[in-house]
Amino acid sequence: MRNKLLILVFLSIFMPCLHDANAQTLGGNTVYNFLKLANTPQLTALGGINISNQTADIGLAFNNPALLRPAMHTQTSMVFNSFYAGIKNYHLMAGFHQPTIATTFAAGINFYSYGSVAETDMAGNVLGTMRPNDYVVQLSAARQYGEHWHYGVTAKFIHSAYSIYRSSGIAMDVGITYSDTAHLWQASLVAKNMGAQVKHYAGSSAGDLPFDLQLGISKRLAKAPLQFSLTFFQLHQYNTRYDDTLFNDETGLAQDSKKKKYIFDKFFRHVILSTQLYIGDKVEITAGYNYLRRKELNVTNAGNGLNGFSMGVGVLFKKIQIRYARSYYQNNSSYNQFGLNLRLNDYFGQGGRNK
Fold first, then answer.
1. Is 220 helix (H, G, I), strand (E, B) or coil?
2. Which residues constitute the signal peptide according to the record (predicted)?
3. pLDDT tens digits, residue range 69-123?
4. Rounded distance, CA 169 to CA 40, Å?
């Protein structure tokens, strides 16, 4: 009865979100699209989106607050990502469990620096340089309900600065997780980036945030050192194919696109598959496949290599977790991520809360 009541409460929260999501914009027309990028090596290795993976990595809770656990007390995640053209990404997150109110909190920041860019006028005259950046600051809280349920919420402050063009926004994520440790599986549902701009870019009107409704399930095998994850995203809109009618007319694809229904393609654009192999209790090897990324970044009549695939490795010592990930883009272009997880209590305190 208690579980059914919890489900009804969360449905009452999610259903209005689904109604509002019909007005949300997909693709590059939303603002703050950096919110969709993977912030940790393990998330990158899992395909870029994962809300259900069974792990002790607090970095995954940045995208689903319901993954926060009391054992993450004082755990800190520090990540450095190097992208193309001098773009840098820095991520920091730390957890804190308060037993008196049975709540686990976390605070985090994700910062993107786009380097030094020449600032010009309409005629191309160089006026100076600018250092554009984006960042989001988050505060999360999560609690357990009954034996299997966990639920959480994240509040976000978002800011973008591109010279005189600046914008700020507020948003929230709401997540619920069902964890069955006896049968080694976990499922999650998350509504992400529900919010709005509070300050628009100069000369522009309000834009939509990149809302996303995600569902994920992870299962670890009882007799083999493997875990599999299946993640569905953009569930609020089925058809996410980009249809450029001008390009189709010029290339003769217009008639072909009218004949095909693309049922298989439309479905798998919402799906990410990933797996983890455990070597003892010290090493994790991860691989993921993002079908949407491969389809959207493929170049016609060109070799696309491992585009859409990702992989990573984690080495888990007693006091520190070291993680590395590599994800592939067009023509085998790739970028690397490196991160560290450690519990501050192991270095500065007398143990920690492990329950």
1. strand
2. 1-23
3. 999 999 999 999 888 778 899 999 999 999 999 999 999 999 999 998 888 888 8
4. 23
> In the beta sheet, which residues pair with residue 107?
94, 139
The whole-angstrom separation of Cα 230 and Cα 312 is 17
Residue 304 CA: distances (Å) to CA of 150, 271, 326, 330: 40, 20, 16, 6
- CA dist 148 and 7 (Å) reads 12
Mean pLDDT of 258-282: 89
pTM: 0.86
Nearest to 314 by CA among 306, 305, 326, 322: 322
Please report the DSSP string for 14-61 in residue order: HHHHHHHHTTPPPGGGSS-GGGGS--SHHHHHTTS--S----S-GGGG
Identify the pLDDT of residue 263: 86
Residue with tokens 């393990």: 42
Q: Are strands 117-120 and 271-279 parallel, antiparallel or unpaired?
A: unpaired
Per DSSP, which regions of the chain are E strands? 75-82, 88-98, 103-113, 117-120, 126-130, 133-145, 149-162, 165-180, 185-199, 212-220, 226-232, 271-279, 283-290, 309-316, 320-328, 334-343
d(CA 151, CA 102): 12
Domain boundaries 2-235+270-348, corresponding CATH code: 2.40.160
Per-domain residue ranges of the chain:
2-235+270-348
For 94-109, the three-class secondary structure string (H helix, E strand, C coil) is EEEEEHHHCEEEEEEE
Exposure on the CB side of residue 145, measured as CA atoms within 13 A:
18
